[in-house]
Amino acid sequence: MHRPFLCVIFLTSLPACSDYGVDRIDDEPPGAGDRVLQVLPELIDFGTVAAGTVAVDSFTISSIGAGAVQLEPLHVQGSGTFTIVNGPLPSSLAAGASVEVEVAYEPATGDDQANVIVASNATVQQIPVDLFGVGVMPDLVFDPQLLSLRSYDGNPVYASFVARNAGVVDLVVDSWVQQGENFEISTDLPATLGPGEESVVDVTWYPEVEGTELGYFWAASNDPDGNEVATLQGYYQLPCLGLHEAFTRGYADITSTAAGITVTHVGEDLDVCIDRWYVYVSDQTQDAGAGDPLFIEADIYGEGGSILLTKGDSVTFDYASPSVPAWWCVEETQLTATAYSFDFTGAQVPPRLLDTMLGGGIDPNTAVWKDIRDNPMMIVGRQRGWATTVADGSTAVRVEATNIGRKAGSAVVYETIPAGMEASGFSPEPFDEVVGDDGSVTYAWQVELEGAVDTDSDTQTIYDTATLGYNLSISEQACSVRSRTPEPVVQWDDASGVTRQAMGSPLIIECW
Asked: N or C, which end of the chain has less CB nearby within 10 Å?
């Protein structure tokens, strides 16, 4: 007897998934064979669209079967930058009918993805329409964003920066405004700049006073980030560094030669000016006063000096020369040699000595030695000629008064602090202070200094030095890239009772 063979086949349907977890449903409800929907296109790529603008595209739903199709309301899954803009769909589509659906894309920035689900009672109950777009924007940038204009002589300075569209769609610069009374702007803006295009903004600065002046340039545009700002920084810098500042900052090196003293410019970008006669004290025995016999008195902090050193330059002061940069001994027993280094405090040669050095005669140095041997001879300098600080911060200042004469003497040292700066933490305390009409304060110290002691010709002369210390702070209002204190002054009476004085170098302060 034969039994019939029974074959049972189990079919498992594996639905395909879209990027957003939406299944395309192929199960046919009763009578669905006649209901067929077609959606074209099934992917809309808006490409790149400027942020803040709206792009619109569409897809079409068509009933291509023999029967009417019931439609469910459309909805968007994914990024909220996509929306359906036309009215509600009809509840059904007759055979052969179609409807267009418009989708708007209003991006911010970056990539966006979503899909629209077309749901119905057709053979395929859900059909996703994938949506893609990239939001882009115009991007206004200033290059450089900080424009530095430096004047070394007080004449107008010219510089420029560019306004560039770093975005990928058109940039519309609507307007601009400038702040800073001494800045002048020349530009083709307002304008429309395509991607990568730029417009030059020319700036002229007319410096009036030493220091820093700030200005600003604002531009309004369709850049979603808002207004762009460029900072204009005018810096009226002195034409060159005084020797003490240069020595402190490492721009100047001072060494001895077989018969002279050499100053070498070892810095980079700034020149060094020497138009004062300074006292150079060696680490052994070649102490001297040196300068240019032909110099014309000038203010090196505004007009430049008679000796100008640029990078790599040097000047050698020759012994007792009447016509070229020269030096005279300020110690009677000394050994002129090479390889000496110097402790330079910016102390200027006292005018009494300078008159003797420049007075001519057969042997002016003999007269110099006599002045030093018979009198107290004071000089005043600083341990450093340049310092940096911040607004309301402080920096330590040390003033040094030294007696290079062989007679003991009493002296008064004066230090003036400009308005906007404040001195505190004195060591020792000054015995007097006087407030000036300009808001400055002058402090005075009394010092008693022994006479210098001569030694063997190959060893250092012994000098008596008084160190006067304090802390200097600068208010936020007075803080500038470059400011200065006046030169310190020392005053004393010589052996004849005549009051003498000498000066040092100012302290240059950079405040940030």
From this structure: N
CATH number of the domain to which 220 belongs: 2.60.40.10
Omega cis (within 30) before 190: yes
Using the structure block, give the residue that is written with the tokens 């050193």.
309
- pTM here is 0.57
Cβ proximity of 185 and 178 under 8 Å: yes
Q: Which amino acid is at 460?
A: Q
Distance (Å, rounded) from C-alpha 333 to C-alpha 349?
19
User: Are 291 and 383 contained in the same domain?
Assistant: yes
Whether 219 is covered by a domain: the verdict is yes
What is the number of domains present in the chain? 3
Instruction: Show the tokens assigned to 299.
Output: 């203010």
Q: Domain range holding 161?
A: 140-236
Local structure of 371: helix, strand or coil: helix
If one counts every other C-beta atom within 10 angstroms of the C-beta of residue 229, the result is 12
Is residue 279 in some structural domain?
yes
With H, G, I as helix, E, B as strand and everything else as coil, classify residue 243. Answer: helix
Q: Could you give the strand order of the β-sheet that contains 394-403, starting from the edge strand earlier in sequence?
A: 378-382, 394-403, 464-474, 421-427
pLDDT along the chain (512 residues), means of 10: 38 37 44 81 92 90 93 90 88 93 88 93 93 91 91 80 92 94 95 95 90 93 89 82 92 83 87 88 80 60 64 86 76 66 90 81 73 94 92 92 96 96 96 94 98 81 95 84 88 96 93 76
Are 205 and 251 contained in the same domain?
A: no
Domain shared by 370 and 275, yes or no: yes
- Which residues sit opposite 409 in a β-bridge? 449
Same domain membership, residue 223 and residue 170? yes
